[in-house]
Amino acid sequence: MRNHRRRFQEQNRQDVSPAKPGSGFWPAGYFTLSAAGLLLTGALLSRSLAAGPPPVASPELLSQTLSALAQGPQPARVWTNYVGDAACLPCHQAKVDAYHRTAHYLTSSWPTRDSIHGNFSEGANLLLTRSTNLVFKMEADKNGFTQTAVLRVSPSEVKTHGERFGVVIGSGRKGQTYLYWHHDRLYDCDELFELPVSYWVERGTWMNSPGLLEYPDGTANFTRPITPRCLECHTTAFDWLDTAGNRFNKYGKTNLVLGITCEKCHGPGRDHVAHYQSPSPPPAVGAAAMINPAKLSRDRQMDVCALCHAGFGTMLVPSLSYKPGDVLSNDLALTMPGPDTPVDVHGNQVQLLARSHCFKASPNLTCVTCHDVHQPQRDIQAMASSCLACHQITSCGLFPKLGHVIDKQCVFCHMPLQPTGKVEAISNGQVFQPKVRNHQIAIYPDVRLP
Ligand code: HEC
Ligand code: HEC
Ligand code: HEC
Ligand code: HEC
Ligand code: HEC
Ligand code: HEC
Ligand code: HEC
């Protein structure tokens, strides 16, 4: 168990700062193009084209590798008793239809013309970089969609490296990042890596993938592995082929359940569906009763959202172990920063809300006081009604001065949109940061209505 834990902590550290190629943990058998370091590029490129097995570093690793080969890839955890959203349709059709338009459901998908928001038409399909020697080209043909880095290494020589879009991450509300599959010949299984070019909605263009360290302008990095924690937040389920515990981005290609589906928040549905299919069933109990988060204590309700809205944390058990209703802190160690430590607005809604006077002074306030996660909600004026369940318009300190212009604007001033420092991308020397709604409900004296 101790080893087990250490391994998940190891895996987690990689979430926060992915290993650089050649840094020891991650073998440099993958592809990096750097316009700044052409000599280095040549060496990496030839290694990448060889695409051989990862270098075996130590006797310990060798014995792990051999025992893994003897066993073959094993799923780290099997996702059982889950039936998928189609099984809910006959009895909850309105909920399913509305839910399937939400960012949660659309947060990951297979690549198609519709799911990829970036433009493949001639001219719009290029991403220029700071270096005139490196461009990226996005192409669509009958076999799928590809991203190719084209590097001019000398006036007469051009090197290219292309990978196919394998998975789309992000509903496209702010942006999308794309993953590709690499077949690992040694283990005969598939690995997921991030592609270097993402799509940014605010600019309506292709952009370098976020991460100033991982994706500096003028480089083509195809080496960033996709960890289980990334998929835990952005998909429903996957088979993690944790072969020898020393590689963490191998997944079963066919068992990946994309999008966040009903059972991620309600628990496995097999018994529930079977129960209600029988004629005039008695009220469901035990496993046949789905978990309704509204019936859980406030802490357990917050846990359902905190799995994904309280930062990366440190996994203490394998990904996908947590089920709604469980005590999340047994599975995931989250950072709860002190009252004066700055918290980034991206992905930390739980910590920020917990700091608000509204939350501290209202024992029943949770995320679902304001959010109905079963349908898209984007209208901040309509959402002001959730404030008015507890407040009067006239109790706003600005009411005497501004009057009824503030009526529907509570969210605009008290939960302002702020840039995140966690998601940054650089393109042509300019740094871009998306804006996220700050969930610390408070007084922000500098915010003015437009
Ligand atoms: C054959 C019909 C049927 C199917 C299929 C079905 N349900 Fe239900 N479900 C019901 C009925 C009837 C109720 C209301 C009775 C109850 O609260 O137990 C219900 C209640 C619920 C509740 C509320 C439970 C509570 O305690 O408040 C949730 C959540 C739920 N279903 C989710 C799902 C999900 C998710 C699926 C698909 C995996 C699904 N249901 C499939 C019939 C069905
Ligand atoms: C701890 C959970 C968590 C992990 C891990 C995580 N994300 Fe996210 N991600 C979120 C949440 C929550 C949001 C949206 C809310 C926000 O911005 O605060 C988001 C937003 C995004 C978006 C923007 C979606 C849109 O359309 O606006 C992209 C793209 C994205 N993540 C990609 C990734 C990738 C790629 C990884 C792994 C390398 C990853 N995320 C890891 C939780 C996570
Ligand atoms: C992101 C988490 C999440 C997802 C995904 C989700 N739900 Fe829920 N669901 C909740 C929460 C929280 C509640 C309790 C608060 C509420 O009613 O909105 C709830 C309540 C319910 C209820 C009982 C209350 C009612 O309105 O009848 C049903 C039934 C239900 N969900 C069905 C579904 C179905 C079907 C899906 C998939 C189409 C789904 N849910 C997806 C979080 C989720
Ligand atoms: C399995 C991970 C996961 C869980 C559990 C989860 N979320 Fe999310 N949530 C995400 C991700 C990822 C996004 C960003 C989706 C995107 O745009 O691609 C998101 C987006 C959202 C959004 C923005 C939706 C929009 O249309 O822009 C809201 C609101 C939200 N979540 C609320 C909740 C609440 C409330 C709960 C708990 C009941 C919850 N989430 C549970 C992962 C999760
Ligand atoms: C469940 C009830 C509830 C909801 C919903 C709610 N609040 Fe509050 N809010 C409170 C309580 C209780 C306090 C604390 C009052 C006090 O300390 O006197 C508070 C305090 C505040 C404060 C003072 C904050 C400070 O730092 O001094 C502001 C501003 C505020 N709320 C705005 C809002 C806005 C805007 C919304 C909607 C986005 C909202 N609240 C939603 C209950 C709520
Ligand atoms: C133009 C921005 C703006 C809008 C819109 C706005 N507020 Fe405020 N609000 C403020 C500021 C600034 C203060 C602090 C004023 C002061 O104390 O001088 C404040 C104070 C408050 C307080 C704390 C009062 C106290 O005495 O502690 C509450 C509660 C509040 N607002 C609620 C609301 C609600 C509810 C709405 C929507 C109906 C709203 N506000 C709309 C800017 C705004
Ligand atoms: C007091 C009301 C309120 C509460 C409580 C609340 N939210 Fe929100 N949330 C909002 C409003 C208003 C928006 C803005 C809607 C929009 O712009 O789409 C929002 C937006 C979001 C977004 C999208 C952020 C972005 O900028 O893209 C996420 C994610 C989210 N909420 C998650 C949560 C989670 C998780 C919780 C519980 C920890 C929570 N919210 C609690 C009011 C609330």
What does this structure look like?
By secondary structure, the chain is of the alpha+beta class. Helix content is 24%, strand content 20%. It is built from 13 helices and 21 strands. The strands form 7 sheets. Strands 2, 7, 8, 9, 10, 11 and 14 form a 7-stranded antiparallel β-sheet that branches. Strand 3 and strand 4 form a beta hairpin. The chain starts with a helix and ends in a 13-residue tail after the last strand. The model is unreliable at 1-31 and 33-77 (pLDDT under 50). It binds heme C (7 copies). The site of one heme C has 18 residues, from helix 10, helix 11 and helix 13.
Summarize the structure.
The chain has helices spanning 2-16, 38-50, 59-71, 93-99, 228-234, 262-266, 270-277, 298-309, 349-355, 357-361, 380-388, 399-402, 410-414, and strands at 32-34, 108-109, 126-128, 134-141, 144-154, 157-164, 167-169, 175-184, 189-194, 197-200, 205-208, 219-221, 235-237, 250-251, 257-258, 314-315, 332-333, 417-419, 425-427, 430-432, 435-437. Helices cover 24% and strands 20% of the residues.
Percent range of helical residues: 10-25%
Q: What is the global morphology?
A: globular
Identify the bound ligands. heme C
Please give the domain count.
Answer: 2
Largest sheet: 7 strands, antiparallel
**Secondary-structure content class:** alpha+beta
Strand portion: 15-25%
Q: How large, in whole angstroms, is the Cα Rg?
A: 24 Å
The end-to-end distance, rounded to whole angstroms, is 56 Å
Number of strands: 21
Which stretches are low in confidence, meaning pLDDT under 50 for 5 or more residues running? 1-31, 33-77
Overall pLDDT: 84
Helix run count: 13
